[in-house]
Amino acid sequence: MDQYKQEFIEFMVDSKVLKFGEFILKSGRKSPFFMNAGAYVTGAQLKRLGEYYARAIHDNFGDDFDVLFGPAYKGIPLSVATTIAYSELFGREIRYCSNRKETKDHGDVGILLGSGLKDGDRVVIIEDVTTSGKSIEETVPILKAQADVEIKGLMVSLNRMEKGLGGKVGALQEIREKYGIEARAIVSMAEVTERLYNRPYKGEVLIDDALKTAIDRYYAEYGA
């Protein structure tokens, strides 16, 4: 496994963003693990997070885009932190953009925060995690309603490796097939398991045999 992937997994654990136990997801699935980017709350955490995303986006999509779009609400700080990191690491000035949940009708009117969108803009979408692909189903129409943009790709931090809304292939693959969008992740759940299963991290085994069995059972039902 690449060193930066191992570091990112440990960073998620240290930040209490990646947790293990029993959780009910937005999709209604009962999962033995949960990833919540809302737990990144300090300046140092957001700085590092933006750098991980910026490197992953640069590795996967290069500089061939103009706007980084983070869907409300968690995507807002992700897009801001990553835009800053991209400028610092690669000297490329990209714009950040997010949406409001409700359209504002006074002052800074409209549904968008940050940069506006114009025809021809090349957009990379940034999210924390995609479980079923439902969020992209909501995001794409928002972008297309604003301008004739080209969506270059989607970057998430964790590929949960689960079936999408269609129930046949993985959520990231389903996004590729349905929208023609390349969907990538900094790390996959398989890589998380590889790093943490029966391997102590700071004196604690986070994925023991019992939890590994629960993860395997979960993927037997929902895995892609």
Please describe what this structure looks like:
The chain starts with a helix and ends with a helix. By secondary structure, it is of the alpha/beta class. The mean pLDDT is 90. Helix 2 (43-61) crosses helix 3. The protein contains 7 helices and 8 strands; from the N terminus they run αββαβαβββαβαβαα.
Secondary-structure element string: HEEHEHEEEHEHEHH
The count of DSSP E runs of length 2 or more, i.e. the number of strands, is 8
Cα distance, first to last residue? 21 Å
Fraction of residues in helix: 40-55%
Structural class computed from helices and strand pairing: alpha/beta
Low-confidence spans: none
Q: Mean pLDDT, rounded to whole units? A: 90
What is the structure about, briefly put?
By secondary structure, the chain is of the alpha/beta class. The chain has helices at 3-14, 43-61, 75-90, 134-146, 171-179, 189-196, 209-222, and strands at residues 18-24, 30-35, 67-70, 95-104, 110-114, 122-130, 150-159, 182-188.
Summarize the topology:
Elements: H1 3-14, E1 18-24, E2 30-35, H2 43-61, E3 67-70, H3 75-90, E4 95-104, E5 110-114, E6 122-130, H4 134-146, E7 150-159, H5 171-179, E8 182-188, H6 189-196, H7 209-222
Parallel strand pairs: 3-4, 3-6, 6-7, 7-8
Antiparallel strand pairs: 1-2, 4-5
Keyphrases for this structure?
two-stranded antiparallel sheet; 8 strands; 224 residues; alpha/beta; 41% helix; 6-stranded mixed sheet
